[in-house]
Amino acid sequence: MAHSIKYASFPGSVVMLGFGSIGQAMLPLLFRHIDIAPQRVTIVSRSEDKTGIAKKYGVAFIAQPLLEGNYETVLEPLVKKGDFLLNLSVEVASLALIRFCRRCGALYLDTCIEPWPGRYTDPAASPSQRSNYALREEILAYRLDKRNDPTAVITHGANPGLASIFVKQALQNIAADNGLIIEKPTCYEEWAELARNLDIKVIHIAERDTQITDKRKQRDEFVNTWSVSGFLSEGLQPAELGWGSHEKHFPEDGGRHGFGSDAAIYLNRPGVGTQVRSWTPLEGSYHGFLVTHGESISIADHLTLRENGEIVYRPTVHYAYHPCDDAVLSLHELAGRNWQPQRGKRILREEIIEGVDELGVLLMGNSKGVYWYGSRLSIKQARKLVPHNTATSLQVVAGVLGGMVWAIKNPDAGAVEPDDIDYEAVLDIAKPYLGEIVGVYDDWTPLCNRSPLFSEPMDSEDPWQFVNFRVG
Length: 472
What we know:
Number of domains: 2
CATH architecture of the largest domain: 2-Layer Sandwich
Shape: globular
Number of strands: 26
CATH superfamily of the largest domain: homospermidine synthase like
Low-confidence stretches: none
Helix content: 25-40%
Largest sheet: 7 strands, parallel
Structural class: alpha/beta
CATH topology of the largest domain: Dihydrodipicolinate Reductase, domain 2
Radius of gyration: 21 Å
């Protein structure tokens, strides 16, 4: 069975940075599917493991915050040539770790591009400087002349990560459903050409988390089903989205970066202060938050088609996230506090009593209607599949596992994004942990069922303009 397959044998050591909800969720999968002894795994985290999970699995644990001034001193005795640095931490600069791994010849994977503390909230920095776009461009500039270095897989969890994988599979599915007989694309231009031929105008990473707890959110407390610190950091960055070539109305508070690929724009407002209309099969129509995510930029960039140096096709791409209900209450309180974080932080796990994380990609514009493709994973399924997991964390670590195995089997690929690697191989590894994988068509558009009680600006001739998505 897939749940007992050893996908790779790894002769080196694994050093895991961070041991929050995702690190704890990953540890069982690491030993289940990668042939490595516990004695060759070390966890480095800013605080002690109060859960006892690390001790249960027999791995070494070092309680030591990694800072800009000490990370090399801490890591040099632990990470050698042929080892794997698995970065599941926050507030430790990804680019610094990638440079470190290159020097010592180690593999690397993270789930998002992180800076050192302070960059996201620096009042002297421009929105562009605080953006995921800028962080990604720094990685891309670094890798230009280092294509054959030890593999560093950046932003490979669920989203970013599996979202890019889902998009490629969804494009293949829509093509087949339209009767198109095509060879599997082998380069970015062929994927972009396929998306253009299918008339894909917009892609949402459409996620609705319905997990609930028997211990509700308290006053002055931020509650979430994954890292509170991570969600606060990305939520208070500027809202960002890949900017499509079909767009006619530039947002009033929008800005371009003026450097790099120009695949994305930002809004001069926090992502958790910006709502968008979206749709998932179980939830139906909903309002999600336009939180910045790396896949919104990388998918748009990789699906860009140029002719004679001019951009002729690019979809609009962004996250549309409706977190669990207690997290929504936390965001409402956060906004009322003028974006000053609450004193209490709590990640939901054992106290979750029911619910599903419905995570997928919504592709819009094709004549057959909108198409949602992704994972429906319930808390009951997650607990049955892997200990120490929720529906949310298991979707993330399924992507981490797929990315790790790919890196081990392709150790000299340099710095790569999820859009660069074998999507079928990653999806095959992740699928057993994603619950029900479905593809669903619908006739929904962002113009559907608008209330006649209030007038709203809209372009009825084209429902895929970004002006029709923004609310609040």
